[in-house]
Amino acid sequence: MTEDQFLRVDALTKSFGTNQVVKGVSFGFGKGEFISLLGPSGCGKTTILRMIAGFETPTTGTIRVAGEDITHLRPNQRKLGMVFQAYALFPNLTVGDNIGFGLKVAGMGREERRARVEEMLRLIGLPGFEKRYPYEMSGGQQQRVALARAIAPKPRLLLLDEPLSALDAKIRVSLRGEIRAIQQDLGITTVFVTHDQEEAMSISDRIVVMNAGHIEQMGSAHEIYNRPQTRFVATFVGQLNTLPAATFGPDRAIRPELVSLAPRPETDMTLTGTVADVGFLGSVLRLRVDVEGAPISIDTFNGHAPPPQRGDTVTLHLARKDVLALGA
Amino acid sequence: MKQSKFWAWVIFGLGAAYFIVPLVATFEFSLKMRRGHYSFDSYASVFSDPAFQATFGYSTLVGLFAILVGVLIVVPAVYFVRLRLPHLRPLMEFVTLLPLIIPAIVLVYGYIRLYNSSSLLPFTGSALGTDILLVFGYVTLALPYMYRAVDTGMRTIDIKTLTEAAQIMGASTATIIARIILPNILVAVLSGAFLTFAIVIGEFTIASLLNRPAFGPYLQNVGANRAYEPSALAIISFIITWGAMGMINVLGRFAPRTSARTD
Ligand SMILES: Nc1ncnc2c1ncn2[C@@H]1O[C@H](COP(=O)(O)OP(=O)(O)O)[C@@H](O)[C@H]1O
Ligand SMILES: [Mg+2]
Question: Which end of chain A is more exposed for a tag (fewer CB within 10 A), N or C?
């Protein structure tokens, strides 16, 4: 098995009736990687995850884990762990019994199980919560328990379907850090589904950007952000300014943070425009500048100098190498 | 405001009287067995009647089996239809309503024709066979109530996601139903059970035509031959039925609690 073959998906398609929602998806990832499936709502991310889990049968294609073809195994034969958006803790069981469920099903003895549950609760920062019931806990705590429940039986793969979407913004950010830390700690191969590009970029080793049932681009957050290969990826991941066609030719764009009001060592061209709007984002100012009729957003640090005012004429500095050519 | 409340109370009072007056009158009459003053003699007479004990015991047992069989049929059926064949739900709704539309007498004549002693499945050929047939008959009679109770219970939990969460951890379907689904709808199942019991305990038609020593035919027999005991029995039946209904209400407080929180 080569490095990128631990999770191997080949020519996967899925149709619901006549509606093909996954259109020939192939990828391979190594053991211990954290992979995100990123794309807009309805692009087929969940469907792919559910085919890996065994809840949907692929129309065509194969899924392999550690070299074993699991395409047609039942979900309870796959030895995978999954965390759902709606937590899905068993309401009738205590936290301890929820986490111990997979262990009990696997036939682990009571004492060993108790020890493992305790270990898991310590891992997620909820020691001593064994006797609580799910309804007594906050959403963030419940989702951590769901994570512990999924990893307690030492699954070969951990699958997460928008596990943070039901949570408030603040907990969303702190919990994603925790998920990443635990994943790295255990070295567990993880597939994470999200429609939030910031979320995907902040925790993934590699990202699969999807659109309308197919893969647009695969790579690290750095590659995806800095070298988007398609127009879709460039616009979906991060902010983007379309540059005026008269000067740059058609389909040229640049990230807001690569345009500045002052020259930098690498900048080799300038544009002149009129400030249309000044937005204050704390440490950063976001200006909207009209250049030859094209609105260009730029981010600049909120320094000591007074910010430009609406109507001011400003000079923008940028580097030719930072200009992205948007293909198809 | 005052006006509308006044009339609401009048109508409520009339409705309540419609139920309560006959009940009070029956109760009052049941206390008159001893000439001249009130006593519980008729109740003592009922409870000391060996036939009361025998028939009540018999119907209780049949009721328990009807509950058991009903739960074993209805819970998996509702579960699988909701999970895998949701488009069959309207059909299921209709089928489970049939026992309310088809009179019990039609049902029992059908049974007797189908399962008589010269048929392929001669249930009525033996006492035990007839008892089994009676249990199935009661399962059918209680089906509309058991189905609705269980269906309502399953609506309050996300059975699809809970099933998937259990499946991915290696659980089999039997484990999932026994350890996850059933405990979460226990309150609903128990309310279906009490309704079944309330139906079985007073049922006359099927038990009588199958000629089984059940409580319903006993009630009818006493009613035809005694003066005060029927009133006492009516009150006793009432208390049993209402007790069963009351239990359903009490159990409602133990329904699973929602845990959908965003914090
Ligand atoms: N069971 C199903 N039956 C029919 N269509 C479905 C089913 N599940 C998903 N779809 C459709 O497949 C498409 C992709 O869905 P999904 O994989 O959930 O997208 P995502 O998770 O990326 O938002 C959507 O158009 C959705 O309506
Ligand atoms: Mg989804």
Answer: C
